[in-house]
Amino acid sequence: MHKRLLIFIAACFYYSGLVKLARWWRRHTGQHLIILNYHCASGGNLESHLLYLRRHYRILPLETALEELYMPDKRKDSGGASGDHRTPLALTFDDGYHDNYTHGFALARKLQIPFTIFLVPGYIESGDHFWWREGNRLTTHTSVREVTIEGHTYHLQRARERKMLAEVIMARLCQTGSVAERDALLTSFRQALPVPVTTASKEEDARPLTWDEVHEMEQSGWVSYGAHTMYHPILAYLDNASELQNEVEKCRAVLEQQLGHPVRTFAYPIGQSQHIGDNTVDAVRQAGYDWALTATNGVNTPHSDPYRLRRIEADVSQHWLVVAAEAAGLWGFFTWLRWILLMRKGIYRP
Question: How many CB atoms sit inside 10 A of residue 199's CB?
Answer without folding.
Answer: 13
